[in-house]
């Protein structure tokens, strides 16, 4: 859901978007988004080199912003089995960043080795972390104000059909408690739509 909104917001602002999809269904959904124009790279078969595809798309210049939903920190043989092998490797992301690029990551355990830092330094690139829970730690008034701004802006774009959320199958009200318990026990991290 976050990626879908990020793609639509970037397109609305006039950015050329390159996205990855992990299934044919996701690829078809992303290609149907309006405004059209996002280049979707299907990585479900694992044969596509994301960095190479992005560099080809940008004429070798690289991208301005990378927003990831997780990265592989190690090579395939060293990676824990629980991690998805469909995620891009951190070296691929650093490779596809252009000069002055910005990498926004959701990876809380990101470790950059000296060669990685040196590559980012030479490109003048930056790394930022995206953490949903940061709103709980921010100044209460600032958080409320930004939340109001974001809410009114988002609702305006939703009502004019600029943003179209990708909704999972709604769950019946009687299953909401079970789903909430799973999330609270950190067994899953997801957003659910409850059908009344």
From TrEMBL:
<protein>
    <submittedName>
        <fullName>QORL1 protein</fullName>
    </submittedName>
</protein>
<dbReference type="InterPro" id="IPR036291">
    <property type="entry name" value="NAD(P)-bd_dom_sf"/>
</dbReference>
<dbReference type="InterPro" id="IPR042633">
    <property type="entry name" value="CRYZL1"/>
</dbReference>
<dbReference type="Pfam" id="PF00107">
    <property type="entry name" value="ADH_zinc_N"/>
</dbReference>
<feature type="domain" description="Alcohol dehydrogenase-like C-terminal">
    <location>
        <begin position="3"/>
        <end position="69"/>
    </location>
</feature>
<dbReference type="InterPro" id="IPR013149">
    <property type="entry name" value="ADH-like_C"/>
</dbReference>
